[in-house]
Design goal:
The chain is an all-alpha fold and 86 residues long. The chain has helices at 2-12, 25-29, 33-57, 75-80.
Length: 86
Amino acid sequence: MEKIKEKLVNLAKKQTHMSNPDFCSYDACGGNFDDAFEMGMNDGEIYLARRLLKDLFDMEEGTDYEIEEEWLLPAINYRASKSSRL
């Protein structure tokens, strides 16, 4: 269970595309809807990790873990990181 918790924390700490107030999915994907879909999947995984940490481990953002400062790059980097997914 500790290993799952650690993986969830590492994922939950990532910045989401949607948390950037200037984010526009169309602009970010350059009209390629496959990239927009992958960005949405990436954000969804991060939100799910945060929700599971809260519901299963009673962990809160800002108290038990901090969100990274760095913004996520478009889906190209997401594809490269698929091997580290849960």
